[in-house]
Specification:
The chain is of the alpha/beta class and 171 residues long. The chain is 26% helix and 22% strand. The protein has 6 helices and 8 strands. Strands 1-4-3-2-7-8 form a 6-stranded parallel beta sheet. A two-stranded antiparallel sheet has the order 5-6. Strand 2, helix 2 and strand 3 form a beta-alpha-beta unit. The longest helix is centred in the first third of the chain and has 11 residues. The termini are far apart.
């Protein structure tokens, strides 16, 4: 399991089986929607990389988030057989001046500094996977993905779950 938790430098040196796919997010409460998303992604790629936001770079999704710290989130995802590598993202953001850009969380537009620019600039991946809830939304990372000719795939509609909604439901 520990050999699956890597950094960008390791992935740049390693010969990865192509095609390569990337899923990126907070993955605070690992749930059925995340698992289904990874299963969907793996259908397109031989190497599936999951990047998670560090605790410091976690999106503003509510009070006391993330609930699960970065080390445990890395471990949880690394335990999944379908995921080949997991890395923690704590690098530079999309906009250096304002330290933010705009994205969507569950249909609501939010200000976010958490686009993993170092990953997008350095890793050569073929597919980028987002949850269906982002379909037909303006995702801030789309420009750099298009510039690098990376195919963007949105997961199936049936996979929509939400850690935020699960937390609110149990408050």
């Amino acid at each position: 399991m520990k050999e699956k938790i890597v950094n960008i430098k390791y992935l740049l040196k390693k010969k990865l089986n192509k095609p390569i796919g990337l899923c990126w997010g907070g993955f605070d409460l690992l749930h059925a929607g995340h698992i289904e998303h990874f299963i969907f992604a793996k259908k397109f790629v031989k190497t599936l990389i999951v990047a998670i936001n560090s605790d410091k770079h976690f999106p503003n999704k509510g009070k006391n988030r993330p609930i699960i710290n970065e080390k445990k989130r890395l471990r949880n995802i690394a335990m999944l057989k379908i995921v080949d590598f997991v890395l923690l993202y704590k690098g530079k953001t999309l906009n250096k001046k304002t330290k933010s850009s705009y994205g969507y969380i569950h249909g609501k537009k939010i200000k976010t500094p958490f686009i993993p620019l170092t990953i997008f600039e350095n890793l050569k991946f073929d597919y980028y996977f987002k949850g269906f809830e982002y379909h037909n939304k303006s995702i801030p990372e789309i420009k750099i993905l298009k510039q690098n000719k990376i195919k963007v795939k949105f997961g199936p509609k049936k996979n929509i779950f939400s850690s935020t909604k699960i937390i609110k439901k149990n408050d």
